[in-house]
Structure formats: C-alpha cells, structure tokens
C-alpha cells in the first residue's frame, strides 16, 4: 500500500492509482491539513481517497487527530483542493473585515471579541487571526513567519482553478483569491505566511 500525502491534482492522483493497481499496489491519496503546528502536535487532518483506507487508518492516526475517508481514489485531493480554496478566500475576507473594523474605530482585540462569537467567525479568525494581537500563536504575531507559506496557498489555489475548469464549476472568488496571492508571490513574499495578505490589504506592503 502506497500513501501519498502530497497535494496534487485530482486527475493525477487517479492516474497514479490506476498505474499502481496494474503493478499490484494499492494507493491512497491522503493530503493533510493543519500546517506546521498540527504536524508538531500530531493533530493533523487527513483526507483519504482510495479503497485501502482500512489498511492505513491506524497508521495515519499516529500523525493525525481527524482521519476522513473521502471515497474513491482522488477524492482526498478533491477535499483538500476545495478546503484550501475556502481557506484562501476566508483569510482574505477576514483580513478585509479586520481592516475595515480598524478604520471604523474598533481595535483588533475588540473586533475579535465580538466577531469570534458572532456569525462572521471562522477558522481564519479564531485560530489563525491575520491581525496582530488577538491570537498570540498566529503568524501575525511573529512577523508572518510561515506556518503555511504564500507559495503553498498559491499552488493550491491554482489546483482549485484547474479542477474547477475541468468540471465546469464556477469559482469566481477562488479566481480572485488566486490573483491576490499571485500578487503577493510576485512581490517577493513567497516564503511568508499566507496570512500576510493582511498587510497587503492594509497597504503596508
């Protein structure tokens, strides 16, 4: 059984599984979510595609806290691609909201206190806040040192755009997020954490 934890195109994962089966190997695509912090803590989320899930679930459980069988080969990559597109969009939206709140006279701490308990709350806010202050462990409080780099987010957003086009799925916000992260990459911020988009939105870059 071969386990691929990289993030690649859905079509590539399915092609690999087909080629491996011809050689009597089973392949599961098992991309991860959670970043460096979750990897260090052993609390990663694995999204697994392929029929050999039962054979690998225990092994993946040594590294992760949430192990999901997404279905057939390639479905792990499908889940990761859609999830990371959502993450990229929500990080931009969260950054815009904090910037707006600040310009309207709310501190980051006060806006976090309110919105993290209101309908706008999301992981990009409560666990990985792009505004310095509210979440001490977020990269925003460490000069945006990467837990998940701009380059990685841009790669995943491009995968999402390619996947969307292949199945005629409209992703206009995903397209805009890709352009925004491409701008960050072009500006030389490739290795910074993807939450550095907050600085771009505030005009600090």
Structural commentary:
- The protein is mostly helical and about 200 residues long.
- It is about 50% helix and about 10% strand.
- It contains 9 helices and 5 strands.
- It has helices spanning about 10-20, 35-40, 55-60, 75-105, 110-115, 125, 150-165, 170-185, 195-200; strands at about 1-5, 25-30, 30-35, 45-50, 65-70.
- Helix 1 (about 10-20) links the parallel strand 1 and strand 2 (about 25-30).
- It starts with a strand and ends with a helix.
Oligomer: single chain
Strand content: 5-15%
Tally of helical runs: 9
Which residues form runs of ≥5 with pLDDT under 50? none
Approximate helicity band: 40-55%
The largest beta-sheet arranges its strands as 3-4-5
Question: What overall geometry do the principal axes of the alpha carbons give?
Answer: globular
Biggest β-sheet description: 3 strands, mixed
Tell me the span between the first and last alpha carbons.
Answer: 46 Å
The chain-level mean pLDDT equals 96
**Element string (H = helix, E = strand):** EHEEHEHEHHHHHH
Structural class: mainly alpha
Rg estimate, integer Å: 18 Å
Q: How many β-strand runs?
A: 5
């Amino acid at each position: 059984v071969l386990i691929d934890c990289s993030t690649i195109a859905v079509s590539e994962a399915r092609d690999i599984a087909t080629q491996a089966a011809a050689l009597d190997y089973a392949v599961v695509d098992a991309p991860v979510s959670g970043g460096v912090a979750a990897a260090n803590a052993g609390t990663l989320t694995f999204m697994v595609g392929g029929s050999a899930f039962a054979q690998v679930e225990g092994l993946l459980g040594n590294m992760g806290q949430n192990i999901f069988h997404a279905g057939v080969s390639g479905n792990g990559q499908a889940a990761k691609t859609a999830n990371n597109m959502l993450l990229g969009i929500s990080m931009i939206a969260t950054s815009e909201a904090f910037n707006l709140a600040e310009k309207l006279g709310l501190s980051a701490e006060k806006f976090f206190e309110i919105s993290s308990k209101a309908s706008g709350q999301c992981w990009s806010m409560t666990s990985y806040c792009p505004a310095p202050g509210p979440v001490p462990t977020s990269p925003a409080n460490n000069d945006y040192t990467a837990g998940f780099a701009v380059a990685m987010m841009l790669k995943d957003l491009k995968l999402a755009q390619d996947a969307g086009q292949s199945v005629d799925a409209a992703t206009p916000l995903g397209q805009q997020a890709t352009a925004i992260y491409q701008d960050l990459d072009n500006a030389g911020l490739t290795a910074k954490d993807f939450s550095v988009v907050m600085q771009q939105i505030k005009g600090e870059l």
